[in-house]
Amino acid sequence: MNPGKAGLVFHEPLLFELGGQNKRGVELPEMDLPIISDEELLGGNLRQSPNLPELSEPEVVRHFTRLSQWNYSLDGGFYPLGSCTMKYNPKMAEVAANLDGFAQAHPYAPHGSNQGLKRLLFELQNDLAEISGMDTVCLHPAAGSHGELLGLMLIRAYHNHRGDSARTQILIPDSAHGTNPSSASICHLDAITLPSGPDGLIDLNTLDQMMNEKIAGIMITNPNTCGLFEERIKEVCDLVHARGGLVYLDGANMNAMVGVTRPGDFGADVLHFNTHKTFATPHGGGGPGAGPVGVKAILEPFLPKPVLVERNGKVEWNNDRPRSIGKVRSFYGNVGVLIRAWTYIRSLGPKGLRQMTLNAVTNANYLKALLEDHFEVPFKQHRAMHEVLLTDKRQKENHVSTLDLAKGLIEAGYHPPTIYFPLVVEGAMLIEPTETESKETLDQFAQTLIELGKKGHDELAALPKTAAVGRVDEVLANRKPILRWEA
Ligand SMILES: Cc1ncc(COP(=O)(O)O)c(C=O)c1O
């Protein structure tokens, strides 16, 4: 066991500690050229020795293989991370994205070429528009949060074009994901917090009081991050529109709506999809992901360029967009991720996509039914959507916290749910099983959580014991993160 800095406790030795003197992974042949000294070769540029460990080839291979196994993955186990939705990535989509014609396509290929890929992207655009009830979709953004930024830029461009540049504020419910206010701030919009009502939903009277001529619009997550469907969503959208604002829909939770309801039908003007949450693509840590943005016709002229259009049976990029806000991403977005989303959508078809949603909601409500006698369920009067929200209120009486339960789940071999989010609910555990999990997995998970909830604080405080990393001092790790190994 190795007590590291920032409270990190590694339960296994790391590479740097395994290194020995003069161990070699390769045997190079004798040099048959004149030997130039490091000093002659590099002169004053010679760095001090980086002090790298010396290891044999098998030791290096085992080290990296072991590191890869420390990574918890969906291919390895249940990953019920609420709000972040870790969806199983079907292997068929990997095969499709790696087909030579797609994987080797070059963004500078001549006009008129790559018709197969362009048609796929065009179809994906249209499928996403159909699924969401929007008029058109832009595939460029590289993540959901990037889609948020683009959506807000479009809202600003719309108001400015109409000469309504006083609208510099955006309403965001207090249960929203942190990326919503950050996107607003990057877009030079002031984020104004809209307090939720006691039932966890948007309160129409409060909204009515807060809407004024400075408000550019509202960012709504539906179902919201408490896993509740905004039942008055149509009235909310109507009210915002009546006062000159636009409605941004954070589509992170589309997994509870696909094939059942469409944001475009209940009043959204612009939304983003998180392809990893809904269409089973890899997440990409906000990096090589995708966050397509759907818009109603009023925002279409402002979309980033180029846009894909079909002319005379051919699909081509169109840069002739005088009112476009410009570009938000090099080339055309993360095409490999978009191919995976297209594959998922086309392999399920309309009926399969609807069933996906129904299964996701059923799985969450099944877990809720298993757990509600043992844990506090806030806003119990509403049915859960695709994720179930619990708190540690009852276990707190026994000095057991949400954090203890999460660490206990790691010890039991699970990825913990999202904890202490949404911020509006104390001691929150947000559990999202997704549609692919079996009844047996859900039963076992619920049983494990129930048993952990009955344990005492001292027993849980020592966990995890067998995971690669033990308890972290969360405050130190946050305030003084150590991002590289120090012997
Ligand atoms: C509700 C909500 N909105 C936005 C985002 C941001 O999405 P992304 O991680 O793709 O940037 C997330 C991410 O988990 C989310 O849960």
From TrEMBL:
One of the protein's GO biological processes: glycine decarboxylation via glycine cleavage system
The Glycine dehydrogenase C-terminal domain, residue ranges: 358-454
E.C. code: 1.4.4.2
Taxonomy, superkingdom: Bacteria
One Pfam family this sequence matches: GcvP2_C
Catalytic activity as recorded in UniProt: N(6)-[(R)-lipoyl]-L-lysyl-[glycine-cleavage complex H protein] + glycine + H(+) = N(6)-[(R)-S(8)-aminomethyldihydrolipoyl]-L-lysyl-[glycine-cleavage complex H protein] + CO2
GO cellular component terms, A-Z: cytosol; glycine cleavage complex
Keyword terms of this UniProt record: Oxidoreductase, Pyridoxal phosphate
InterPro entries per the UniProt record, alphabetical: GDC-P_C, GDC-P_N, GDC_P, PyrdxlP-dep_Trfase, PyrdxlP-dep_Trfase_major, PyrdxlP-dep_Trfase_small
Gene Ontology terms for molecular function: glycine binding; glycine dehydrogenase (decarboxylating) activity; pyridoxal phosphate binding
Keyword match Oxidoreductase: yes
Presence of keyword Oxidoreductase: yes
Domain Glycine cleavage system P-protein N-terminal: 55-298
Enzyme class: oxidoreductase
UniProt-listed Gene3D superfamilies: 6.20.440.10, Aspartate Aminotransferase, domain 1, Type I PLP-dependent aspartate aminotransferase-like (Major domain)
Cofactor dependence: pyridoxal 5'-phosphate
Reported function: The glycine cleavage system catalyzes the degradation of glycine. The P protein binds the alpha-amino group of glycine through its pyridoxal phosphate cofactor; CO(2) is released and the remaining methylamine moiety is then transferred to the lipoamide cofactor of the H protein.
NCBIfam families, sorted: PRK04366.1
The name this protein goes by in its record: glycine dehydrogenase (aminomethyl-transferring)
Organism encoding this protein: Candidatus Lambdaproteobacteria bacterium RIFOXYD2_FULL_50_16
